[in-house]
Amino acid sequence: MKKNLIKKMFRDLRFNAVQFVSIFIMCFLAIFLLAGFDADTQGRLRSSDRYFKKTNFFDLLLTSEGFTREDIDTLEEIPEIAHAERRTSLKGKVTNCLNKKIELNFIESDEVCKLYLMEGEPFTAGKRGIWIDWHFAKVHNLSIGDTVEIDIDGKAISEPVTGIVDEPQHTNFMIDESYTEAQYGDYAYAFLDTSEYPLDDINFETAVVDLTTVENQMYLTDEDMKAFKTAKLDILDKISKTSMSIMIKPEQEAYAAQRSDCSFNDTMIAIFPSLFIVLALLSTITTMSRITAKQRTVIGTLKALGFSRKTITLHYISYTVVIAFMGCFLGLLAGYYGLGEWLIEDFYDYYSVPGGSMGMSYMVPVVALSVVVFSGVANYLSCRRLLVLSASTILMPEAPKAGGAGFIEKLFIWKHLSFATRWNLRDININRFRSVMGVFGVLICSSILMGAFGFDEILAEQDDWMYDDLRPADYTINLSDRGGYSWAYDYAREYKGQMIMTSNAELMSRTDSRLFTVTVVDKGNLYRVQNDKREYLDIPVYGAIISYKAAEALNVKKGGNISFRLPTEKKIYTVSVTDICKSPDVQGIIVSRNCFEKMGGYFDPQTVYTDMTVPVSIASDRREVTGVINKNELIHSLEKDMESMNDMVIVIIVIGMITGFTGMYNTGIMSYIEKTRDVATLKVLGFATEKIRWILQQQNLFLTGAGTILGIPVGHLYIKYLIDSMDPTADYIVDLTYLPYVKMVAFTYGLSILVNALISTRVKSINMVEALKGVE
Amino acid sequence: MSALITFENVGKIYKTGSIVYEALHDVNLEIEEGELVVILGPSGAGKSTLLNLLGGLDAASSGKIFFASEELTAFDDVKLGKFRAMDVGIIFQFYNLVPTLTAVENVALMEELGIKIMDPVKALEMVGLAERKNNFPSQMSGGQQQRVSIARALAKQPRLLLCDEPTGALDTNTGKEVLKILQDQSRVYNKTVVMVTHNALFAEVADKVIYVKNGTVVEVKHNDSPKDAFDLDW
Ligand SMILES: Nc1ncnc2c1ncn2[C@@H]1O[C@H](COP(=O)(O)OP(=O)(O)OP(=O)(O)O)[C@@H](O)[C@H]1O
Ligand SMILES: [Mg+2]
């Protein structure tokens, strides 16, 4: 008996292959994406957490014009401070390794931000030698005992390699602005004892601090955030250096970038798997209602034959549970080992986290199991109606539903509507649930496409916006930090350029304070500012323009005041906000040089923009020039960055089409099945197949219209969600042309018409005799 | 070939998987214009199958069917559709009205086919239902629904009316009324009416009775003095 039911199950699965395959695919995709992105997030967080724990990553990073031995002692006397260490760094070139750039860090001890030793001896104070990063060592075949020759501002030193290491402050290290993404091995970072400092006066600009009150690394709690705040206040209390700025761990760039990548993953996890799960359940409901409705007599007969309700129920539920289980299980394997591994490999290309691995949160198996359980429940709900009835009732025919189209019929236009329109409107009204499902199926597709096409346009606009509108200069000259005004002035005069100073700064509003960037702009037309409508804003003679994201974070409005303090000064500047701008890559405030100097600031530009041709060779010939960058290079590197985003957009479009197809196909089939009797009646009366198909298509076009319109705001929500989850320093202008809308409508309607045409081919081959029989 | 309808060695085979069932074989018959024909036979004999072939709802597996000298069995989908629209009115046991259209709209539906029909309200009057014209099928009794379905068939004044158990779901009196309407179509308007039933009593109102058994015509009887529908001892 049971064996025959199993046979029956497989036969039914085969006859409804398209439906079950779609349920399988939806379950598979949902768990595939979930497990993949989760493996990436968990892998990053856990590996970084482990790495930061092992190396005792700093809790606070202090910068000032210089820390003395006494400062460090004072710091270490503060009860919640476990350790404090001061550091300084220099940049140079490795002359025996192709003149590659190197950052030399001079440290006194190795308690906070410890070196992660891969080979050689651990660091000990006073020991000669260099601990060099393992990427560079690998690329240049350096091993313990080899000698590296380094040139620092004309001074040559030579050090034996004592260790091959990594260090947690360098998880996403780029040596200067000519790199937009980490390219390990193309430059080096290294650590030496302070006794090896080659220049005359050593000055420790930074100090790393480890707190006793914060144990956590990647999983910071609210308590930890509070502890940061108290420690910050305590330090400011004890150390009278008002020129000091304090960065807390989550503000560190690489740390923040990782967090933002993870929040992007979370967005992916929130949007797509949930969509697929909804679709899987939707498909389950439609497929099973259809199968059980079709098997009305079979169910009645099975019952009449004496099968218990439990047996029959389990029999039908087993259909989707088997399918959902297979989809989820395979999705989990493929997501974790395929997508997850691929994503995390990409991560380890850009982030240097030694000893990294993948991870999985308990959420993944829980969700996978829930999908299986829910598909069983959805299945049960969709056939319960029939299963609970007695055998004799089931075998009776079902009365057709009927009724009007509601208030529309009272309108005078009703009389002028065609028969097909009336029929469709009433049909929609009577089968409201089904119609809403149909609109929902379209909405899934239209909203994803709206999001994807919209985002695509925003991305495509980005380089025009940045390099045509805001930074149109042909060349950018980057100067060394230690140059001062006079060097910048010389270059600005030589190349008729515009000088820009940028500095990290603590921005303070009445309610909040955060680390942002202050940009000071000299006269000129090569650094421009626009508002959210892409209208140019004048940089005020007196006053500041604040970027949108900074204004939001600090809760500052136009007309309000904003204060800031530069890292190496004690002074607090306060200025009124005259406008709010959109900034693609830097968040903070922009003031004119005039305003900055009037407030008593020292204008110390590091960048000169010019439209004249600058020979690239000066970057290597002149010590004070750290880089000369051509606009085309910038555009090129931005485009390269965008490539992966564009790939993502294409993936999203494909996903949108797949979900759209599945959603529309399922709701379409469900609706067609319910209309079979009407369709057969029309056909018997002599209506031509094409005419009937057109009537069905009209209803479809109407519901598609509703779904498309609703897709616009929902798509915009996706865009907002997506942008919010991107890099916190990046911003975008959402000012779409008609094109994404047109594309979205065209794709959605195209797909919808295609699906409907596919489904309505059944009109031609409908078995009129069968469909019109009173009882099956 | 003077008859309106001719069946020549018609057979119908149903195939479900590996099971082959011969529902009709070697059926030969003729029906004259204006006749009221009753097809009688036990359940499963093939009566409905025969009617469905005649209405072009299903295709014959072998043999030929002629309607007014045209070979129905050679028609394609489009031509069959036109045939059903122009020449045939079909009335089913379960009425088969469009549930989302009112009585009058169900009748007026035929206008959509681009054929000339009588005023839908007049058609409803013929079956005594004018005052229910704005009701949906679900708001009417079975007999009323059946009469709407007859009105729909009559409205276009087809040459051929096909009825499968038209009174099957109705009580005696309503059944008689429906039967009367159909009989009048043949007597008064010279329409050809073919009616399938398992009720042997109906043989008395017919001009011609065709007995079907096990998929073949076993007997054809002519009735020289058919009774009036109201005079039946139901
Ligand atoms: N679609 C089908 N597939 C297989 N066999 C069928 C199909 N339709 C009808 N049959 C078979 O063909 C035979 C004739 O069926 P038909 O419906 O013509 O009988 P009937 O004379 O109208 O019976 P009833 O008086 O019960 O309506 C029956 O034995 C039936 O089982
Ligand atoms: Mg029958």
Structure description:
The complex is a heterodimer of chains A (776) and B (234). Chain A is an alpha+beta fold. Chain A contains 21 helices and 21 strands. Chain A has a 6-stranded mixed β-barrel. Chain B is an alpha/beta fold. Chain B has one domain: P-loop containing nucleotide triphosphate hydrolases (Rossmann fold). Chain B contains 6 helices and 10 strands. In chain B, strand 1 and strand 2 form a beta hairpin. The model of chain B has no long low-confidence stretch (mean pLDDT 86). Chains A and B meet through helix 11, helix 17 and helix 21 of A and helix 2 of B. The structure holds adenosine-5'-triphosphate (ATP) and magnesium ion.
Sequence-ordered SSE layout with sheet pairings:
The complex is a heterodimer of chains A (776) and B (234).
Chain A: H1 2-15, H2 17-55, E1 60-63, H3 69-77, E2 81-94, E3 100-107, E4 116-120, E5 130-133, H4 134-139, E6 147-152, E7 155-166, E8 188-193, E9 206-211, H5 222-238, E10 245-248, H6 253-294, H7 296-304, H8 309-350, H9 363-387, H10 391-394, H11 419-430, H12 432-470, E11 475-479, H13 485-494, E12 498-508, E13 513-521, E14 529-530, E15 536-537, E16 544-547, H14 548-554, E17 561-565, E18 573-581, E19 588-592, H15 593-598, E20 607-610, H16 618-621, E21 625-630, H17 631-684, H18 689-724, H19 738-760, H20 762-765, H21 768-772
Parallel strand pairs in A: 3-8, 5-7, 13-19, 16-18
Antiparallel strand pairs in A: 1-9, 1-10, 2-3, 2-6, 2-9, 4-7, 5-8, 6-7, 11-20, 11-21, 12-13, 12-17, 12-20, 14-15, 16-19, 17-18
Helix pairs in contact in A: 1-8, 2-6, 2-8, 2-9, 6-7, 6-9, 6-17, 8-9, 11-18, 12-17, 12-18, 12-19, 17-18, 17-19, 18-19
Chain B: E1 5-16, E2 19-31, E3 36-40, H1 47-54, E4 62-67, E5 70-71, H2 77-87, E6 88-91, H3 103-108, H4 120-126, H5 142-155, E7 160-164, H6 172-187, E8 192-197, E9 208-213, E10 216-222
Parallel strand pairs in B: 3-8, 3-9, 6-7, 7-8
Antiparallel strand pairs in B: 1-2, 1-4, 4-5, 9-10
Helix pairs in contact in B: 4-5
The structure holds adenosine-5'-triphosphate and magnesium ion.
